[in-house]
From TrEMBL:
CDD domains: ABC_6TM_Tm287_like (cd18548)
Cell location: Cell membrane
Name of the protein in its database record: ATP-binding cassette, subfamily B
Source organism of the structure: Atopostipes suicloacalis DSM 15692
Pfam families, per the entry: ABC_membrane, ABC_tran
Residue ranges of the TM segments: 7-27, 47-69, 147-166, 234-255, 267-288
Amino acid sequence: MLNPKRVAWLFIFLVIQVVSMLAIPTISAEIIDNGVATGDIDYIIKYGLIMIAIAFFGFASAISAVYLSSTESQAVGAKLREQLFDQILNFTNEEIDQFGTSTLMTRTTSDVLQIQQVLVMALRFLIMDPLRILVAATLAFTREPKLAFVFLIIVPILLFFIVIILRKVNPLFRSIQIKTDRLNRIFREGLTGIRVIRAFNREEYEEERFDEANEDYAQTSIAAHIYMSFLDPLMILLTSATSIMIIWFGAQYISVGEMAVGNLVAFTSYSFNILMGIMMLSMIITMIPRMQVAIERVYQILDAQNQIVDTDRPATLDAYGKEVSLAFNHVDFRYPGAEKLALKDIDFSLKDGEKIAIIGGTGAGKSTLANLILRLYDIESGSIKINGLDIKHVTQHDLREMIGFATQNALLFSGTIRENLKYGNEEATDEELWHALEVAQGADFVSNLSDGLDSRVEQGGANFSGGQRQRLSIARALATDAKILVFDDSFSALDFRTDAQLRKALEPETEDKAVIIIAQRISTVVDADQILVLDKGELAGKGTHEELKASNEVYQEIIESQMKGEDI
Ligand SMILES: Nc1ncnc2c1ncn2[C@@H]1O[C@H](COP(=O)(O)OP(=O)(O)OP(=O)(O)O)[C@@H](O)[C@H]1O
Ligand SMILES: [Mg+2]
């Protein structure tokens, strides 16, 4: 995922940075010994200028390295987010149910961010620090082997403290990640559920729940950072101790003429680089497991096998042919992981010009049946055929192009009414959209809006009433010009009159289409060619209104319950 060319450049810049970082003390040592000690001004100026040039190169390389490592890690983050979004869009309902939307969100946002943050550090310090330690140690040992024993004392002490601190801190950081998940979930629920929370007067409860999670998160972060804050003073302490030791022993060597003064200066600087390098390197190394957790969480999504796949050699489905037929043949279906069948032995068929209605109590399996037509889930046994072709043998794209679907919760997207109506058919003209609205009984209220088709739709269609949303979603399905139309409880929020008008307007539109109307109200289904009565996932009856009214118990019960309602 990284760009090898840019990483190669990054490597080069880092090498230059390390070389310049360590060349400067080395040259200083030379200047002190050969220039200052002998009073050779020319020498001082010459090497002083070289030092400035090297410092400049080091500075420029450091900036380039920071630039490259940040842009690279940003690019990786952007790429990951894009892949995640593509993958999630292709998820079947089953996979979305499995993960849950909350964690899909946190993984796409904060886990990717985590990877990005560690990567930006790792790209620089994982390359730079080993190099820095190696070069500094080599220089230190070759220039003054007599002082090298200082490291044998200081480095183990440094490592000892680093290990202790990081062992405390790492589990804390890992739990911070889990606590972020929790905080996000509560926050999200609070946002989306704000109306319910108000209606039930649960603000205080939700606030407490949030405060508790927030406090927990804050305490863990504080604890982690308290431990981390020991690192700085520890470094100061140890580098000072090292300097003192070097000066102490160095002065003795110098006084007996066994060591040059310049080396003392250079050696102090090398030792600082070694200690600093060790500290940064250990920090990065311990950050990697945190990144690994995030990578795992992200790749669980990316590697998830899509359960519903197209066959290798799909049959072609003529979306715009003259005729159309849909058949369920003894279909059994069970939600993933569920014990009971959600639909059992469903058997019916319809063709163009026909209208089938599905009626049944809540939870009977009506929406489930509608989802199966779109192949949002795969069935357990039996078959579903369109134009005689098993829907498993055609591509999902072709299949869904055949179907105009108005979902139960009439979801709209933020944008304009026009954008929403054109969602299933980008080529639809304004005229066609108005016609669809006309049929859906929505033309009146849309033309009364000051901006007509250009009126804004808020997220989820929040600025429209339930009935208006339903009519827009019906119009959206009609605008597709699909051969099979499925209305999942789409008339429920309409008053009886609008419901009747809509069905009447639909008649001439659907002469060459197959129509499935799902409803709870008897009045919505009376004029259907065939009515399916669903009861607890099973087909309790099939026939016209008259037939069912005369002989079907479940249907009679439904009629009765609604008659009572009318009496009131
Ligand atoms: N994603 C899901 N995972 C597991 N079970 C589900 C899922 N969706 C629905 N069910 C179950 O399947 C059954 C049928 O649900 P379905 O949504 O099809 O009912 P429905 O007839 O459309 O009801 P309503 O009239 O209330 O819309 C219910 O018992 C429900 O609990
Ligand atoms: Mg439903």
